[in-house]
Write a structure and sequence with these properties.
By secondary structure, the protein is an all-alpha fold. The protein has one helix and no strands.
Length: about 50
């Protein structure tokens, strides 16, 4: 989730920057809900089978 947070904040503030990607702004209409997420777990007891 932290990978999309900067894009959401930039979108809310309306800042114009080449670093902003609308597909990563979860409050925007162009948000890609199907974007794959990778979760790394260091503790085996927290792993989801």
């Amino acid at each position: 989730m932290t990978d999309v947070l900067p894009h959401a904040i930039i979108g809310l503030l309306g800042v114009d920057t080449p670093l902003y990607k609308p597909e990563l702004d979860f409050w925007g209409t162009a948000y890609d809900e199907q974007c794959p997420r990778i979760i790394y777990v260091d503790d085996v007891s927290l792993a989801i089978d």
